[in-house]
Design brief:
Structural class: mainly alpha
Strand order of the largest sheet: 1-2-3-4
Order of helices and strands: HHHHHHHHHHHHHHHHHHEHEEHHEHEEH
Radius of gyration: 32 Å
Shape: elongated
Low-confidence stretches: 17-21, 626-637
Strand content: under 5%
Helix content: 55-70%
Number of strands: 6
Number of helices: 23
Largest sheet: 4 strands, mixed
Oligomer: single chain
Length: 637
């Protein structure tokens, strides 16, 4: 896709030449990216709703329902007067899987699955490169998959769409690899912030989702925040005024956290959430591996996964007649989640459990087979329904009034489940708060999310996440600076090593014999007061070995390098390494911090590298020790 962007490249070059790089450059790029991602989110949202209206409602007679803050511009096209046609629904889901799988296989194999994993992989391993075909293929295939009843969400796909737009912009402007990665992450945050109407969470999501540990891509946050806010504003302009700034799940969710004692049932709920999360991740990855082994064309595998997803939905639908909420297993499931959170029509514990189990299996079949759909939306349904079910079960077992709002556990359950499954607790806490418009539950939400994150570090949906910045190829070379900046010269150089000082007036004839009789390579030169005035190496002296006539005429002052590069004990090793590499030196004089004329030792390059290697081993060992702490209790049991 070729667009004339030479004017923008010239503008960026001019801004950089005038020291606007950190402010004006990223403001301009983030603004452009936010507008583009916002408009593309509108197209994606409307197309998926159109397919859902025409196919699910019009042909299959199935109304999946919406969250209260959502807007369907095509709702007036038809009014349902009949119930769902089960076999037509199964046919529609299967055909949708086949069609979307064929489009992915033919035009953009990178668009398979949820999309978020591919985006994370592109950030770390592909220098921020994504093919622009992913944009239109992902829009079409996800609209078909979710619009025909496949169990998936739109959040992962829009994250990949936004990331692809950011990467494409960076490629067209011939930006550096670092800038391309930043734009990729900013586009991902803009897509999530717009579709969820949660701009702050979108920015944090882009910085946090890249790593398995509690690590942030700090340089991404500001560009992602700006692009996310603008994308959210653009997307909101296409919504009716009465819901434009309404949280996705409406304004009637009003919950309270009244007593610290409530953390006891919340902790019990967190344990159940952890088991549900482990079940989901294992089922999802197991299903994906199973479909990878099937020797069939990709689009046939996706169609088979969609078919099995429809079978699971209908199996539970026929097993619980009259319970329309069970149909939330198909599609996005937000209508069922809205019912569970509001409590207007309370769902029985058994029905909630069926929805959780059915959603886990159906999503694993739909997305695990390679279908184009996200796992973030289904995770919200699973976590929310699990939380409400646990609260309803515990309510009669605890003193009256302690669990006064079982639906509040659905909100907290959503955050805990997602935080554990995708290893992004901070952005998840903010996102769920923005989705529900409820901030009074921040304490239990943070508590449950932290527990789930800590206990599920070995079980996550996005295997493409790297452990931390230490293991990211995107930061290869950066981490050595981070490590060395934390080590002082004082800790490394040998203070008691014998060092031969050379007086400035010493004749070259005497210097030649000293060099021949010692193993020292660099020789500091001092004046009559013992202050450092220069330095020379044995290589400098070697140039005079075959000219004995000059031995009696020259002295150390003629051989030495004046004003040598020095460091102090308070300098860090990164500063020392820069001097080593820039001047190709093997040793540096270490001088007093208060008087740079007083020499106190020498720092060797090999000592610096050895110290870095030791510290690197220590850091890796600390990570292994942390992992073994989590694994050991399980092994003992």
């Amino acid at each position: 896709m070729r667009l004339p962007l030479s004017w923008l490249r010239k503008l960026l070059e001019r801004m950089e030449s005038r020291d606007f790089q950190l402010s004006g450059k990223w403001f301009l790029l983030s603004m452009i990216l936010g507008v583009v991602v916002g408009l593309m989110t509108v197209v994606f949202d409307h197309l998926s709703l159109l397919v859902e209206t025409v196919v699910l409602k019009g042909i299959a007679g199935f109304n999946p329902g919406d969250a209260h803050g959502e807007y369907d511009p095509f709702a007036s096209l038809l009014e349902l007067s009949r119930g769902p046609e089960p076999w037509i629904l199964l046919l529609v889901i299967t055909l949708g899987g086949l069609l979307s799988g064929y489009l992915v296989q033919t035009f953009a194999p990178d668009a398979a699955g949820s999309g978020t994993g591919t985006t994370i992989h592109a950030f770390h391993f592909r220098q921020g490169y994504l093919r622009w075909q992913i944009v239109w293929v992902k829009i079409l295939t996800t609209s078909i998959t979710v619009g025909t009843g496949g169990s998936g969400g739109r959040e992962g796909p829009i994250a990949q769409i936004g990331a692809t737009l950011g990467a494409w912009l960076g490629q067209r402007l011939h930006l550096t690899r670092r800038d391309r990665r930043i734009l990729l992450a900013a586009g991902m945050g803009a897509g999530v912030g717009a579709i969820f109407r949660a701009p702050l969470a979108g920015a944090l999501f882009a910085a946090e989702i890249l790593y398995r540990e509690a690590d942030f891509e700090a340089e991404v946050i500001v560009p992602a925040a700006m692009s996310s806010i603008i994308a959210y504003g653009v997307y909101s302009m296409f919504l009716p005024q009465h819901i434009r700034y309404m949280p996705m799940f409406g304004q009637e969710l009003r919950f309270n956290f009244l007593s610290p004692l409530e953390l006891i049932p919340y902790t019990i709920m967190a344990i159940v959430i952890i088991f549900a999360g482990i079940l989901f991740t294992k089922t999802y990855h197991g299903t994906h591996q199973l479909f990878e082994k099937i020797k069939l064309p990709f689009f046939v595998r996706v169609g088979l996964g969609a078919f099995l997803s429809g079978v699971i939905t209908l199996l539970f639908y026929f097993s619980f007649p009259g319970q329309d909420a069970v149909m939330g297993i198909a599609g996005r499931g937000y209508g069922t989640l809205q019912t569970a959170l509001t409590g207007a029509q309370p769902l029985a514990i058994g029905i909630l459990a069926v929805i959780v189990l059915g959603k886990i299996v159906a999503t694993s079949f739909t997305v695990g087979s390679g279908g184009s759909g996200g796992v973030f939306g289904p995770s919200m349904v699973i976590g929310g329904c699990t939380g409400v079910a646990v609260a309803q079960f515990l309510q009669p077992l605890f003193p009256e009034g302690l669990i006064h709002q079982p639906q509040a556990y659905g909100v907290v359950g959503m955050a805990g489940f997602i935080a554990g499954c995708i290893n992004a607790p901070i952005s998840t806490i903010i996102m769920v708060s923005e989705l529900t418009g409820e901030y009074k539950l921040l304490i239990p939400t943070m508590w449950v999310s932290t527990l789930c994150f800590l206990m599920m570090r070995k079980h996550n949906l996005y295997l493409q996440q790297v452990h931390s910045r230490l293991e990211s190829p995107a930061h290869r070379g950066d981490f050595i600076v981070d490590v060395l900046e934390g080590i002082l010269v004082e800790e490394v150089y040998r203070k008691n090593r014998p060092l031969r000082m050379i007086p400035e007036s010493m004749p070259l004839e005497q210097i030649v014999h000293i060099v021949a009789d010692t193993h020292q390579h660099y020789y500091p030169v001092v004046d009559e007061k013992g202050r450092l005035v220069g330095i020379f190496s044995s290589d400098d002296v070697r140039a005079y070995l075959y000219n004995e006539n000059i031995w009696r005429l020259a002295n150390a002052g003629d051989v030495m390098t004046v004003n040598p590069i020095t460091i102090t004990p308070e300098d860090n090793l990164n500063t020392a390494l820069m001097h080593f590499t820039m001047k190709n030196l093997d040793e540096l004089p270490v001088v007093s911090s208060t008087d740079r004329g007083i020499m106190i030792g020498m720092l060797r390059r090999k000592e610096t590298i050895a110290c870095y290697n030791r510290r690197l081993v220590e850091l890796k060992q600390s990570y292994n020790d942390e992992d073994s702490v989590l694994v050991t209790p399980k092994a003992k049991s």
